[in-house]
Amino acid sequence: MLVKELISELEKRIPLNLQQSYDNSGIQIEGPDVEIDKVIVTLDVTEQAVERAIDVGAQIILSHHPLLFYSIKSIKSTDFTGRMVYSSIMNSLTVYSAHTNYDAVRGGLNDILAQKLGMKETMPLLNVGENGDGIGRIGIIDEMEIEEIANFVKERFETDHVKFAPTGPQKIKKIAICSGGGSSLIDEVLKVGVDMYITGDLSYHDILKAVQSGLSLIVVDHDETEKFFEDGMIEILSSLGIKTVKYHERFYWSL
Fold this sequence. Notes:
Blueprint: H1 3-13, E1 26-29, E2 38-42, H2 47-56, E3 60-63, H3 80-90, E4 94-97, H4 100-104, H5 109-116, E5 120-127, E6 134-145, H6 146-156, E7 163-165, E8 171-181, H7 186-192, E9 196-200, H8 204-212, E10 216-220, H9 222-226, H10 228-239, E11 243-247
Parallel strand pairs: 2-3, 2-11, 3-4, 8-9, 9-10
Antiparallel strand pairs: 1-4, 5-6, 6-8, 7-10
């Protein structure tokens, strides 16, 4: 399969029109349209990810977070983004990102999280398009005591810590989730009326607002809700007969 053929197939399955207005999913750097031997799948495009792609002879880096999210005015060796752009071009790499469109698409990242939590009767928290696509998910889980759910989420999301802000009902059944940063959806969650909201990147004031409004929260590290992007994309690529190399990089630790 050629590079452009793979990109066309990805965009059929994960349409670019599902991305949020602030996003920059799609082609970040267009390399030559050559036959694909390997694809690097990673959460972030880092210098180490680019080096890994070069080492294994990959033609594409497929990331969740876009390399070019904020505008750049120059490409310099003193800037890490500039170094990655330069190195990718010089080594004929295509860099492609599927960000909020993969969050939103049915069967994408939010549905992977919902499946891990055993959610049923799921629907988008915020509709995008007309096919059940949307940001976040609302659904029903097997009822459990509020004291149990933090450990349940830690186990299912394969993480060793979360922030837990319990309030409201003592039994949790109807929940909302959002991969990545979910602060902008707090008002939507309050409108639909759930027992708990599970997401990442909530500030102190976001948590205060939710708790004072009677909404229980579990706050997971941003990347701990998104690391499953890698396995989800590898499943798609493998179904197309494409060899993949997973590159997962953790560059901080909680002590």
